[in-house]
Structures are given as structure tokens and as C-alpha cells.
Amino acid sequence: MIRTNYHTHTSRCGHAIGTDEDYVTAAIANGLTVLGFSDHAAYPEPHQGERMNFSQVPEYMQSIRSLAEQYKDKIHIYLGMEVEYYPDQWSVLSKYRREMDYCILGQHNISYEKDSSYDIETAEDLNRYIDAIEESCRRNLADYVCHPDVALFSYPVLDEGVRKAAERLAKISIHYNIPMELNCGTGVIRGLHQYKDSVRYAYPTRIFFEEFAKYQAPVIIGLDVHDPKNFYTDTYLNRALSVVEGLDIHFLDNYDLPSAAKKRKELFVSE
Ligand SMILES: [Zn+2]
Ligand SMILES: [Zn+2]
């Protein structure tokens, strides 16, 4: 059972349900001692069904901060944001970097509003996706990489190009000391899927974690919760763990992400 989860959404994003407090009480009921909220970052333009509106950010912050205070004797609650590396949104990202306890990187598009990571089908685009992650790490934008293999969502064949991409990511993880996430969200919730070469979850994907294991890149488990009920089940956690079964993964247990974030924030440059 998981005690620490830094990947939690709220209904503000438009594709999660429940109140903020529902997530807190469900987490406590299931033995979590650390709960980090990391809803999808808002950008100036509205993205309905994907992320909260920019105007909702202060209320999000206030709500999580007040729950942290209210439940401080029962659970440690932290305020975070799941951001993308978008260089043309740097001033917004800088604000989140300053104001949040931590940020996690979920590179859902390669660039702002363009090139969905869910549509990648070539090694060239996969490398562009990893370029964005590498830049984020170099610029200290975020404290761990969510679903690093989300770029394999549509990837038809897990060929050598994929392994090379995974190896590149493993080296980035080691070089910048950035944990990679074993994600227990959509990829495993939607179940197994037939690809050209195999039946697999969209993500996590074993080939990525083989390389992470080989290089002993640090790996953190993220529940990526969009429904408080998911704290009551180990089904999706177990599915994600089944993908990496038998691999010598360097798992970070009860990782103190906020402390790591504090140090990384000191290196972050706003401009
Ligand atoms: Zn989401
Ligand atoms: Zn997420």
C-alpha cells in the first residue's frame, strides 16, 4: 500500500470528480500520510475539460492550503502543479514554480497547444518529446517526470528507437537527479490495448523501465488520481507494478519531494 502520493487532481481540470476534501478524507482512510495536489497547470487561454481556468488558480491554492491546515494532525498536504515545459509560457510557469511547494512535469504536448504527446508515432517525434523533458530538467522547472512513457500512447511498434529514447531519458534522470514516475492513471485504468506488435498498456511501458532499471534511475510511484474512490483500490497500482515485475527498479519510498523541490527552486531562473 502506498503512503505517499504527489500526483492528485481536482475537479477544476474538468475531467476529475469529487471535492478537494473528498480526496483528503479518502487518502486518510487508506493510510496515506503525505498527499500532494498537482492539478493540471492553467495557461492564459482556457482549455475546457483539460485544465482549470487561469482565474481559478488563487482559489485552488487557497483551498489546498486551508485543507492542509485543517487536516495537519492527520496528513501532510502539499500544494503542487502538473506543468508542461512550454518556453513561451515561461512567465506563467515561473509563477507556479515560485508559489507551489513543488511542480511535476506532465509533457502532454511537445509544444504549447501543438504536437500532442498522445499522437507520437515516430522516433523523431519521440526525441522531440524527450528534448522538451531535458530542457525542463536543465532549467529546473519540475521535481519529477510524470508518465515519462505517455509518448508511447499511440506508438505502433516498440522498436530500437524506443529503447534508445528510454536510455536517453534514463541518462537525463541520472544526470539531473530527477525521478521518473511509474504512473497508475489512465494508461492502466483503460486496460490492455492491441498495438501492431503486442498487447500492452498505453503506459507505463516495460521497455522504458528496463532502461531505468539498467541505469538505476530513481523511480517514484504516482497514482495520478482523478477520482477520490481510486484511493480505495490497489487495482491500478498493481497493474502498473505488473508491467515492471522482475526488474531491479530503484524505487524511491516515501520520497520527500517538497524538500527536493526547495533545493531545485533555488536553482530555477525566472527569466
Ligand atoms: Zn488529468
Ligand atoms: Zn496527472
Kindly summarize this structure in a few lines.
With 271 residues, the protein is of the alpha/beta class. Helix content is 37%, strand content 16%. The protein has helices at 20-29, 57-70, 90-99, 123-138, 160-176, 186-189, 206-215, 235-243, 257-267, and strands spanning 4-5, 34-40, 76-83, 102-105, 109-111, 114-116, 144-145, 180-183, 193-194, 199-200, 218-222, 250-251.
Q: How many separate helices? A: 9
Low-confidence sequence ranges: none
Helix proportion of residues, in percent? 25-40%
Q: N-to-C terminal Cα separation, in Å?
A: 41 Å
Q: Hetero groups bound?
A: zinc ion
CATH fold annotation? TIM Barrel
Largest sheet: 5 strands, parallel
CATH superfamily: Metal-dependent hydrolases
